[in-house]
Amino acid sequence: MKKILITGGAGFIGSHVVRLFVNRHSDYHVFNLDKLTYAGNLANLTDIEQAPNYTFLKGDIVDAAFVDGLFAEHRFDDVIHLAAESHVDRSITDPLSFVYTNVVGTANLLNAARRTWQDDLPNHLFYHISTDEVYGSLHNPEEFFTEETPYDPQSPYSASKAGSDHLVRAYYNTYKMPVVITNCSNNYGPNQFPEKLIPLCIHNIAHNKPLPIYGKGENVRDWLYVVDHARAIDVVFHQGKPGETYNIGGFNEWRNIDLVRLLCRIMDRKLGRPEGESEKLITYVTDRAGHDLRYAIDAKKIMHELGWKPSLQFEEGLEKTVDWYLSNTEWLTNVTSGAYKHYYQGQYESR
Ligand code: NAD
Ligand code: TYD
């Protein structure tokens, strides 16, 4: 049985990737390495935690000696690297944590993989999960990010992700390590930490709290259902060409204000409120510093070369997401109260 290391598997996207690999690929033993920061939550994985091909490893990718020891002990065959600090607003107040985890952490994994795989490099794969935010901000409505778009990151988060992407490519070029990188647009769906726009609004609508819209709400994002992203990662892991980059997106651009209004309408219906009730919670607030205007992905390469495409329409995905949050109120309450950090107390200490 092959051994795959998935980092950041207790987080939002990582938990969906871990679940998919554990359930679909019995030829792999899945090792989930996660520090369990505020964003890591093992309650995301209760359905598969007893699976015979799954092991959780608690640890910090910034700790080089720890990462080296882990690779020496387990000799992972392949890596899918998702662990990161992922929230732009946090990167504005605490950029250094992003440099440590996203840049130094990625370098530590690359070094440990290179050392472990040096005698048979071509038999391994280091798959790095990145974001469309590395391409910067689009101002011309006709433009889309392609795999050839030059990097132009604008926030400390996207700059740290760009740094990690460059390192991964450097290991391909310099050491011939087989690598692949995907740059995906904004994900949404079950298990997303309620600091990001969609789960934050679902939570606030449910609790009749203000919906903070940065600036005028005219910034545009492309949204993809998280399970569709996990499917894309599976496809690229198995069929992607080493050295290549693939953009992943939902062909689904929304201005923030239009998205939040749609969410309000769905929530009014689900909560049995009169139409227009939740929209009253919309509150315009000070804009995010350096707020990127628009992200838009051209995902034709992965569609044409690897045959992946999104499976869900946006409204359908949003409905599923709202249903999940409304029927998992305990998850949301634990996350917003901090109780989830005590959930596994005694088993794993947490920050
Ligand atoms: P997340 O914040 O929900 O999860 C990140 C996970 O990484 C958490 O479980 C956390 O505990 C873990 N982690 C953080 N620092 C660590 C460290 N030093 N050592 C070990 N583990 C650590 O993030 P997410 O939204 O699931 O994003 C996952 C990846 O996908 C990230 O690399 C992110 O840049 C990328 N991405 C995210 C989106 C999005 O819309 N969320 C879009 C494109 C790409
Ligand atoms: P977010 O979910 O933080 O993702 P990202 O910044 O990586 O795109 O934000 C999505 C968009 O929503 C972004 O344009 C910022 C905006 N936003 C708000 O208007 N209000 C909020 O409370 C948040 C969290 C985001």
From TrEMBL:
Superkingdom of the source species: Bacteria
Family matches, as InterPro entries: dTDP_Gluc_deHydtase (IPR005888), NAD(P)-bd_dom (IPR016040), NAD(P)-bd_dom_sf (IPR036291)
Transmembrane segments: none
Any Pfam family matching the protein: GDP_Man_Dehyd
Keyword Lyase included in the entry's annotation: yes
Molecular function GO labels: dTDP-glucose 4,6-dehydratase activity
Cofactor entry: NAD(+)
Catalytic activity field: dTDP-alpha-D-glucose = dTDP-4-dehydro-6-deoxy-alpha-D-glucose + H2O
Domain (NAD(P)-binding): residue spans on this chain: 5-321
Keywords recorded for this protein, A-Z: Lyase, NAD
BP term (GO), one: nucleotide-sugar metabolic process
EC number annotated for this UniProt entry: 4.2.1.46
SUPFAM superfamilies: NAD(P)-binding Rossmann-fold domains
PANTHER family found in the cross-reference section: DTDP-D-GLUCOSE 4,6-DEHYDRATASE-RELATED
Family: Belongs to the NAD(P)-dependent epimerase/dehydratase family. dTDP-glucose dehydratase subfamily.
Protein name: dTDP-glucose 4,6-dehydratase
Species of the source: uncultured Cytophagales bacterium
